[in-house]
């Protein structure tokens, strides 16, 4: 998904067959998702297709045959406003929402999983929300959320997908302007 300053906010584009450097050859194409609200922020592979996110919505992408794709809304209420605070694995897509809730989408409707830490995130992520990073640790089956706190220290939470428990993290070094 690309976000442009033209009249079309979101354009999905795909490359020619088996050539990720050819955007004009046989099989290449694009589609303007005029119905999607908000600028595009992330794209994820999902099954045979994918998921496209804007700041305001989530859309599914499915192959339609003959080098075409179909685009349908997953959720018009939930988007991924902070592209760096989103990640996915084979089971689900996770992200930090505008409401400072951590959300999970596993193929049906988005569901909140961050209620135990939402209050903390609302107070800690006021001006530094762009510093938030969300990643997935496949070995330990955990989500890792890092952010620069208001006192300029790197803090975070780890979420065990097996036990469904959030654990606070605190690091003894100051944050930089943004986390990597």
Describe what you observe in this structure:
The protein is mainly beta. It has one helix spanning 115-124, and strands at 2-3, 10-14, 29-32, 40-46, 49-54, 58-65, 68-75, 86-88, 93-96, 102-105, 111-112, 133-137, 142-148, 153-160, 165-174. The chain has one helix and 15 strands. A four-stranded antiparallel sheet has the order 4-5-6-7, with no helix packed on it. A four-stranded antiparallel sheet has the order 8-9-10-11, with no helix packed on it. Strands 12-13-14-15 form a four-stranded antiparallel sheet, covered by helices on one side. It is elongated. Mean pLDDT is 85; it is low at 1-7.
Helix content: under 10%
Overall spatial form = elongated
List the uncertain runs. Answer: 1-7
- Main sheet: strand order: 4-5-6-7
Q: How big is the Rg? A: 18 Å
Secondary-structure-derived class:
mainly beta
What integer is the average pLDDT?
Answer: 85
Tally of contiguous helical segments? 1
Q: What pattern of helices and strands is seen along the backbone? A: EEEEEEEEEEEHEEEE
Largest sheet: 4 strands, antiparallel
Distance between the termini: 22 Å
* Beta-strand content estimate: over 45%
Oligomer: single chain
Helices and strands, with pairings:
Elements: E1 2-3, E2 10-14, E3 29-32, E4 40-46, E5 49-54, E6 58-65, E7 68-75, E8 86-88, E9 93-96, E10 102-105, E11 111-112, H1 115-124, E12 133-137, E13 142-148, E14 153-160, E15 165-174
Antiparallel strand pairs: 1-2, 2-3, 4-5, 5-6, 6-7, 8-9, 9-10, 10-11, 12-13, 13-14, 14-15
